[in-house]
From TrEMBL:
Top-level taxon in the UniProt lineage: Eukaryota
Signal peptide: 1-20
Essential cofactor(s): FAD
Domain Glucose-methanol-choline oxidoreductase N-terminal positions: 305-319
Residues the record marks as active site: H547, H591
GO molecular function: flavin adenine dinucleotide binding; oxidoreductase activity, acting on CH-OH group of donors
Species for this entry: Agrilus planipennis
Family note: Belongs to the GMC oxidoreductase family.
InterPro entries: FAD/NAD-bd_sf, GMC_OxRdtase, GMC_OxRdtase_N, GMC_OxRtase_C
Keywords associated with the record: FAD, Flavoprotein, Signal
Protein name: Glucose dehydrogenase [FAD, quinone]-like
Entry binding sites for FAD: V268
């Protein structure tokens, strides 16, 4: 029964989500035919018009900047976004993976890598990024994590004044309104735009995970508060059990301000830079096959994300000289744009079978769940794609600081089998051969999953242009598990051993918990559960959790890898900044949505400080 009900609803939702180009109702209301919230935003392009600030990209950082800069009534702000506004079904948290198949995802694929992604389609990993007003906050899993104090203290120690944890804590508090039951209130914000809530429904398997970690000596913590090491139910970027995206948080009301203009379906193709003065003067953008320009009196701010901000810089003549010359792009400033890119890798193959029905069951998901959701009652619709709890552990392998985690463990009260392989496993591009061998036999069984995520990888990749055509997506290279001393692999295997210990606790053994021992196809030659076996399994099935950073790295002028300074100004180019996750210099102990909001808040204050006290900031 569930297969027919669930599949029917998923197909209907996908059809609705894909019909993005909508018209407002004929009665003149701001409500769109396909339930676009608030407004369909501006449908009219502008050409040659002047603004004080032009912001490229309406993702988490760009939305925050647009809101905060438009607080200054005398400033005229333009926000350009290549995608569409969200539709009503974006509010349903459980549908997080569904939107990766819609026009709200840029649908990037990683380039093939030797000895990696061997169990994925065409050996290419999916690297989703949000395309729409709200950016990746429209398609992410809504997991609200700031990061560790030491993450940001490292930034400051690298030569970035103003970016220590103590400097940034006020911004983390400013952006959020925390409504979770367990919180370190002195570290949490209570008046911000981004709402943070508990998920209203939990499985007993999640309770078991929490209990198991406590039996191992870990504390129940507010991982966004005083201490991160420990275990907790997941904190979610939700408002009344519905997705709280950047669009909902920062733009829905701000777009009514007369000084903020937001244009959808506007693909910025390059930053217009004066080749003599090296000043950013505006942008060129394309909409429906027509090209337009917009002029900036003060600044252009790139908030297009970890892929598209570096792509735009390179298309505009800012990047590695040798690479731009290959594509006949005139070089205005030789900078190592895109030459380093960190990411968080995870491993979705660790399945735990149980002898009682304490997990999400497909048979319980159907029309009644939708009825409860729309009646504002607790419903499975409000779960974060199945994610229920997080644990942060220091495995004492390469990192000796007891307060600094090596891994994050993500607990799912179900798994890739829970939707019969229809959606979630396809977001990871796991092949039929892999799915049918490992997950299909347990589709009707009681099973949950724990995904280890490596939070401080030593390996890193890079980004290159594939073409000087701005419509062509860049080439993305992961270079996972390639660090010289194999530390990433060793840390991953240590995290698997930790998960095996968790399964052996009395809490899990109450349900006769067993780690599924079906060998990964392609790894049968290795003894199951040996270190070489797990490395083989990682190289077949490890997947990204979409946290790419450092492609426009922030750093001091003496840092040969730096693209922007501590005020986020692009080196050598006046009136141009980058403000999004691409400036993050090192991988953080976080999911990158909240750090991106923080960067937007911080950048806004930096810009206000520059221009409210001096019309000529010190470039």
């Amino acid at each position: 029964m569930w297969r027919s009900q669930g599949l029917f609803f998923m197909i209907a939702i996908l059809i609705q989500a894909c019909k993005s180009d909508v018209n407002v109702t004929t009665d003149g209301s701001r409500r769109a035919k396909l339930l676009i919230y608030g407004s369909d935003y501006d449908d009219k392009p502008i050409n040659g018009e002047e603004f004080d600030f032009i912001i490229v990209g309406a993702g988490s950082a760009g939305s925050a900047i647009a809101n905060r800069l438009s607080e200054i009534a005398q400033w005229k702000i333009l926000l350009l976004e290549a995608g569409y506004p969200p539709v009503e079904v974006h509010d349903m948290p459980i549908l997080a993976p569904v939107f990766q198949f819609t026009p709200y995802n840029w649908k990037n694929l990683m380039e093939k890598q030797d000895y990696m992604s061997l169990g994925l389609e065409d050996q290419r990993m999916s690297w989703p990024r949000g395309k729409g007003i709200g950016g990746s906050s429209l398609i992410n899993y809504m997991i609200h994590v700031r990061g560790n104090r030491l993450d940001y203290d490292k930034w400051a120690a690298m030569g970035n004044p103003g970016w220590s944890y103590d400097d940034l804590l006020p911004y983390f508090m400013k952006l959020e309104e925390t409504r979770t039951r367990h919180q370190d209130s002195q570290y949490r914000g209570h008046e911000g735009y981004v709402k943070v809530e508990d998920v209203p429904i939990r499985t007993r398997s999640a309770e078991t995970f929490i209990e198991a970690l406590q039996q191992m000596g870990y504390s129940y913590v507010d991982y966004n508060g005083y201490q991160q090491i420990g275990v907790s139910y997941v904190q979610a970027t939700l408002q009344d059990s519905r997705r709280c995206s950047a669009e909902k948080a920062y733009l829905r009301k701000a777009q009514e301000r007369g000084n903020l203009k937001i244009i959808k379906k506007a693909l910025v193709t390059k930053v217009i830079i004066n080749p003599i003065t090296l000043e950013a003067e505006g942008v060129e953008y394309e909409r429906d096959g027509m090209y337009y320009t917009a002029k900036a009196r003060k600044e252009v701010i790139l908030s297009a994300g970890a892929f598209h901000s570096p792509q735009l810089l390179m298309l505009s003549g800012i990047g590695p000289r040798y690479h731009l010359s290959e594509l006949d792009i005139p070089v205005l400033k030789d900078l190592p744009v895109g030459q380093k890119m960190y990411d968080h890798l995870s491993f979705p193959e660790l399945v735990i079978t149980l002898n009682e029905s304490i997990v999400f069951k497909a048979s319980s998901f159907g029309i009644n769940e939708f009825k409860q959701y729309f009646s504002n009652q607790p419903s499975l619709i409000s779960t974060l794609g199945g994610v229920e709890a997080l644990a942060y552990l220091n495995l004492n392998l390469t990192n000796r600081n007891p307060t600094y985690p090596d891994v994050e463990l993500i607990f799912m009260g179900g798994g890739l089998h829970s939707d019969f392989g229809l959606i979630t496993r396809k977001t990871f591009r796991i092949t039929d051969r892999m799915y049918n061998r490992i997950w299909k036999p347990i589709e009707n069984e009681n099973a949950c999953q724990i995904l280890p995520m490596l939070v401080h990888p030593k390996s890193y990749g890079y980004i290159k242009l594939k073409s000087k055509d701005p419509h062509v997506q860049p080439k993305l290279y992961g270079n996972y598990l390639t660090d010289a001393y194999n530390e990433d692999v060793r840390t991953f295997i240590a995290s698997i051993r930790a998960i095996q210990e968790i399964i052996q606790t009395p809490a899990f053994q109450r349900y006769n918990a067993q780690l599924l021992d079906t060998p990964v196809p392609g790894c049968e030659l290795f003894r199951f559960d040996s270190d070489p076996y797990w490395e083989c399994a990682l190289r077949h099935l490890a997947v990204t959790l979409h946290h790419q950073v450092a492609t426009c790295k922030m750093g001091p002028k003496y840092d040969p890898e730096a693209i922007v300074d501590s005020s986020l100004r692009v080196y050598g180019i006046k009136r141009l900044r980058v403000a999004d996750a691409s400036v993050i210099p090192l991988p953080v102990t976080a999911h990158t949505n909240v750090p991106a909001y923080m960067i937007g808040e911080k950048a806004s204050d930096i810009i206000k400080q520059d221009y409210m006290y001096s019309p000529y900031p010190n470039y």
